[in-house]
């Protein structure tokens, strides 16, 4: 019989081996499916960005290579808390619509006053009055297909204009933007972290499943060696047995990956869900993953044969395990030092490869340090406690710490990942905020001095047509400076009347501040004899008009401390600000109407507000929260399964010992308590350590993004508490396993 036939024969006659093989296949299937899903995420973001490339998100990198045929401007609009991508176009140089190659999903090029919208935006246009939304874009003449949308529910409007209606920032192009899109950097980072954090618990589950029959298989193989089987034959038997289960598991993982991709398509990211076709991997990478994971499992099984191959008598008769050396503790600080160096040099090197390698080493160091910690806990039990269950648990932890730690390995990694994530999230949330100098309800459009008056005039005409009393005003931006050249100092100032500043800004001015003529308001009363006005930092500066007073006001927000307010009447004669912001007040009832009034004359310039300033921040935070919850749930389930299987395997490995103890009169409850202590107490110590390391890693990763301090939340303790709970839940299988041993004759072993 060849090795495969022997493996099939063993699976047929041995129920426990068959159970172990099934669980191993399930573990490999889970690992393969997760890796295939996580590996495809960067490709999925690249696919969705490729479809949206024509929308001009990376327009800054496009240039007209030849005579320009098209003016294009891309901006973001908002309606009722939803983001709208607005693409404004105009034909130039005698170009005709037929001379422009349309991107996939774009049915036609709209003419002036026309627009082509996505299906989701079309439904919004039909459900709302024109003054709230429709008048921003023009007459709808077509619908964008899925091939032209980042995600199915994306709100997009392709709006046509004449060249003179386009904003001054429109790009001259020969065609719509094209090229090769880049994957989302954040999701790429998260996918690598997910592979590292979730793959290891999956492999721990595989290893725990394989250990269900470890002792029996070791004795069987040792008997074959003593009967004359060569090391190569024994190795081939194990390879065949492991390859069978691991290969079936890998194929199952490949088969379930479309279902996982389908589920992932419903998880929003960056404002929307996915198309099923987004989740595609190169065939070569799929083949590599499907082959690599079973190969790793087979290699692990072969490496576990060292004792059987070297001395089969030890495997059949037992042997004394060597104590673990203290040098194992050096693995963690060594990996931490590597991670620290990688984090501190990441900005200079411009990559995260070394950071991910350091994270992988930290995760791997747990497998080296964990058994030593388990052995130390066992030694404490033996020295201090004298209850039978404590002594049994302590002796087990002391004699075989590697096997005892196996049930905690997945939990440790889950706690590490959870602590790391819950360290980063509160800090990111604390960073959310900020905005312009204007009140939260104001809308504003940045433009220049030449176009500002036109936008104000047309916007106010539309507001009157819509029956609104609000009026848009032009707010210039200048600098109050002193000194010349490199020694020049100063700060920004907004040019607006005191009455407008009271209504439109967050400076906290009141009507009492507006008496007494033109003034300059700031955090301190400036010495206007020392300061001059200029429209750009390096430009020629002129003194303010004589008689202008300086008044100190305390801004309501600290981010306004370096900005001043200067009355237009205080500017030198003939001075016109180069940069201007058109600002309009709103109420909750008319905010969308005022936005529509500004959108027409703005012709593609983005209309901002504090709400919109926070939109991207809140979207990113929502994505991170969602990914964190999903990752922690997955890691917790894998950890709980691996703990349960490892505990059951521990009982199976010691059937003779437990059977003898029961035959000698030891109650099952004492043995069950000992097994629960074996699983729970080392897990408690290890999870506390994993939580501390996770917090430190989170601090290190955050330092790559921002140099400010980290915000610690009580929620960072949650993974430790949940980890201990999962360990106790996994250990609960010990009682049924012990009763199964009690029910079977000891002679069966």
UniProtKB/TrEMBL annotation:
The keyword Magnesium does not apply. Residues 539-565 are annotated as: Disordered. Keywords: Cell membrane, Membrane, Transmembrane, Transmembrane helix. Signal peptide: none annotated. It is a multi-pass membrane protein. The chain crosses the membrane at residues 21-44, 186-210, 246-267, 279-305, 326-346, 352-382, 403-425, 629-652, 679-703, 715-738. GO terms for cellular component: plasma membrane. GO terms for molecular function: transmembrane transporter activity. Residues 194-311, 632-742 form the ABC3 transporter permease C-terminal domain. Pfam families: FtsX. It comes from the Bacteria. It is found in: Cell membrane. Belongs to the ABC-4 integral membrane protein family. This is ABC transporter permease. It comes from Amycolatopsis iheyensis.
């Amino acid at each position: 019989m060849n090795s495969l036939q022997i493996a099939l024969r063993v699976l047929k006659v041995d129920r426990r081996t068959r159970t172990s093989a099934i669980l191993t296949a399930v573990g490999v299937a889970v690992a393969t499916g997760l890796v295939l899903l996580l590996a495809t995420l960067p490709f999925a973001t690249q696919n969705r960005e490729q479809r949206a490339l024509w929308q001009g998100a990376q327009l800054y990198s496009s240039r007209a290579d030849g005579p320009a045929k098209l003016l294009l401007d891309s901006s973001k609009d908002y309606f009722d808390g939803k983001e709208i991508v607005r693409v404004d176009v105009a034909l130039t140089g005698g170009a005709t619509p037929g001379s422009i190659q349309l991107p996939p999903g774009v049915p036609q090029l709209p003419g002036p006053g026309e627009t082509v919208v996505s299906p989701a935006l079309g439904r919004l246009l039909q459900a709302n009055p024109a003054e709230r939304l429709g008048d921003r874009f023009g007459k709808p003449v077509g619908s964008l297909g899925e091939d032209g949308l980042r995600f199915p529910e994306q709100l997009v409007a392709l709006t046509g204009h004449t060249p003179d209606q386009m904003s001054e920032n429109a790009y001259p192009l020969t065609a719509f933007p094209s090229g090769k899109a880049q994957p989302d950097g954040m999701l790429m980072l998260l996918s690598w972290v997910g592979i590292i954090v979730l793959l290891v618990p999956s492999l721990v589950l595989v290893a725990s499943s394989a250990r269900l029959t470890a002792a029996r298989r070791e004795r069987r193989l040792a008997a074959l060696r003593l009967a004359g089987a060569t090391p190569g034959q024994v190795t081939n038997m194990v390879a065949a047995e492991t390859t069978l289960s691991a290969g079936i598991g890998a194929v199952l993982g490949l088969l379930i990956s479309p279902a996982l991709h389908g589920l992932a398509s419903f998880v929003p990211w960056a404002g929307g869900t996915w198309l099923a076709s987004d989740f595609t991997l190169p065939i070569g990478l799929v083949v590599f993953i499907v082959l690599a994971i079973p190969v790793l499992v087979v290699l692990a099984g072969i490496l576990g044969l060292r004792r059987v191959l070297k001395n089969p008598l030890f495997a059949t008769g037992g042997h004394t395990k060597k104590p673990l050396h203290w040098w194992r503790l050096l693995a963690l600080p060594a990996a931490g030092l590597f991670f620290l160096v990688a984090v501190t040099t990441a900005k200079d090197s411009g990559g995260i490869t070394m950071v991910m390698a350091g994270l992988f080493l930290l995760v791997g160091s747990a497998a080296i340090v964990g058994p030593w910690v388990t052995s130390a806990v066992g030694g404490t039990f033996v020295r201090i406690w004298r209850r039978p269950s404590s002594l049994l648990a302590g002796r087990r932890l002391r004699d075989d710490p590697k096997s005892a730690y196996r049930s905690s390995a997945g939990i440790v990694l889950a706690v590490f990942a959870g602590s790391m994530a819950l360290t980063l999230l509160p800090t990111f949330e604390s960073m959310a905020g900020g905005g312009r100098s204007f009140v939260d309800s104001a809308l504003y459009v940045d433009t220049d001095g030449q176009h500002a008056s036109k936008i104000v005039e047309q916007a106010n005409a539309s507001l009157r047509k819509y029956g609104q009393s609000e009026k848009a005003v032009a707010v210039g931006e200048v600098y109050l400076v002193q000194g010349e050249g490199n020694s020049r100092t100063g700060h920004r100032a907004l040019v607006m009347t005191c009455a407008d500043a009271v209504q439109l800004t967050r400076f906290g001015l009141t009507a009492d501040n507006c008496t007494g003529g033109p003034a300059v308001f700031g955090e301190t009363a400036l010495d206007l004899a020392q300061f001059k006005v200029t429209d750009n930092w390096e430009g020629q500066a002129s003194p303010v008009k004589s008689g202008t007073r300086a008044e100190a006001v305390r801004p309501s927000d600290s981010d306004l401390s370096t900005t001043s307010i200067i009355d237009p009447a205080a500017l030198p004669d003939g001075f016109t600000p180069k940069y201007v912001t058109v600002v309009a007040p709103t109420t909750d009832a008319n905010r969308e109407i005022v936005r529509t009034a500004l959108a027409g004359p703005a012709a593609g310039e983005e209309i901002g507000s504090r709400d919109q300033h926070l939109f991207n921040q809140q979207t990113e935070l929502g994505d991170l929260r969602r990914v964190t919850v999903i990752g922690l749930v997955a890691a917790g389930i894998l950890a709980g399964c691996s703990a349960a299987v490892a505990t059951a395997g521990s009982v199976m490995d010691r059937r003779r010992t437990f059977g003898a103890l029961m035959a000698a009169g030891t109650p099952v409850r004492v043995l069950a308590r000992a097994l629960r202590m074996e699983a729970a107490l080392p897990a408690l110590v290890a999870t506390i350590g994993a939580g501390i390391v996770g917090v430190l890693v989170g601090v290190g990763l955050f330092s790559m993004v921002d140099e400010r301090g980290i915000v610690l939340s009580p929620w960072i303790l949650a993974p430790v508490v949940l980890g201990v709970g999962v360990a106790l839940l996994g250990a609960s299988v010990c009682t049924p396993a012990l009763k199964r041993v009690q029910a079977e004759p000891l002679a069966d072993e």
